[in-house]
């Protein structure tokens, strides 16, 4: 009998605004893989350039072990062990690889995720689909179109209680300006979940 070439590798993407439960859902999916005794690795973006062990936390307080990396090249090296994922051979790869805050990864995340899936790995990516302006965020559009499965979550609009699809950015309590940089050092900023009607952007 012919052996099926199907190995189950694929991409799953979880998107939505802040507070929509993306981290919770990532933790739930990875947690179930751990219960099934599968080998897992979870990555998140680091602010400094050294990788370190940390955790993914949901706003509701659930946590999961993760490795913070400064680039997808670093994640690739850690997965491959010898600097090149493709040289490492399938035996050393985890069964499931998760990425949290995927929108902050560099464009190398797309080929890395595709290579992993082609090698039989289940890749679960969680991230913001839209930035604070309501524009597609970084690598997310490409991941969304290449994924086998997409789950788009909503939060609750803090103004009216409707399903929230946007992330409202406030600086000093006022809506951020369209021209504000995505990262503002030292600014007293905060974020809220809002629906389309209550999402505000100053010009
Ligand atoms: P994300 O990763 O999408 O930012 P989390 O998984 O970290 O979301 O957090 C989701 C949790 O945040 C919810 O289960 C709820 O307890 C809490 N939460 C706080 N504010 C809101 C809101 N406006 N809408 C929905 N959930 C909220």
Distance between the termini: 65 Å
Sheet-strand content, in percent, reads: 25-35%
Structural class category:
alpha/beta
Overall shape: it is globular
The H-level CATH homologous superfamily, spelled out, is P-loop containing nucleotide triphosphate hydrolases
Query: Which small-molecule species are bound to the chains here?
Result: adenosine-5'-diphosphate
CATH class: Alpha Beta
**What CATH architecture would you give?**
3-Layer(aba) Sandwich
Give me the side-by-side strand order of the main sheet: 3-4-2-5-6-1-7
Question: What's the helix-strand series?
Answer: EHEEEHHEHEHEEEEEE
Output the number of helix runs: 5
Average residue pLDDT? 90
What is the CATH topology classification name? Answer: Rossmann fold
Q: Based on DSSP secondary structure assignment, what is the total number of beta strands?
A: 12
* Spans where pLDDT lies below 50 across 5 or more residues: 82-90
Largest sheet: 7 strands, mixed
Tally of separate domains: 1
What's the gyration radius in Å?
18 Å
Tell me about this structure:
The chain has one domain (10-154): Rossmann fold, CATH 3.40.50. Helices cover 22% and strands 28% of the residues. The protein has helices at residues 22-35, 72-80, 85-88, 109-118, 140-146, and strands spanning 10-15, 40-45, 52-57, 63-69, 96-99, 122-127, 149-152, 155-156, 163-164, 166-171, 174-175, 189-194. It has a seven-stranded mixed β-sheet with strand order 3-4-2-5-6-1-7. The longest helix is centred in the first third of the chain and has 14 residues, at 22-35. The radius of gyration is 18 Å and the shape is globular. Bound molecules: adenosine-5'-diphosphate. Residues 16, 18-24, 58-60, 155-156, 158, 193 line the site of adenosine-5'-diphosphate.
């Amino acid at each position: 009998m012919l052996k099926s070439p199907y190995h189950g590798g694929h991409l799953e993407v979880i998107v939505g605004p802040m507070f929509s439960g993306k981290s919770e859902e990532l933790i739930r999916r990875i947690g179930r893989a751990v219960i099934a005794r599968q080998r897992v690795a979870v990555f998140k973006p680091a602010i400094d350039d050294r990788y370190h062990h940390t955790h993914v936390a949901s706003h509701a307080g659930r946590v999961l072990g993760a490795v913070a990396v400064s680039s997808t090249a670093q994640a690739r090296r850690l997965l491959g062990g010898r600097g090149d994922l493709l040289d490492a051979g399938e035996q050393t790869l985890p069964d499931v690889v998760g990425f949290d805050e995927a929108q902050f990864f560099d464009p190398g995340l797309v080929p890395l995720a595709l290579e992993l899936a082609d090698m039989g790995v289940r890749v679960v990516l969680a991230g913001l689909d839209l930035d604070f302006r309501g524009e597609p965020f970084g690598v997310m559009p490409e991941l969304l179109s290449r994924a086998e499965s997409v789950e788009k979550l909503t939060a609750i609009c803090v103004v009216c209680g409707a399903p929230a699809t946007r992330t409202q950015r406030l600086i000093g309590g006022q809506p951020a300006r369209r021209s504000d940089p995505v990262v503002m050092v030292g600014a007293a900023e905060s974020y809220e979940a809002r629906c389309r009607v209550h999402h505000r952007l100053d010009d």
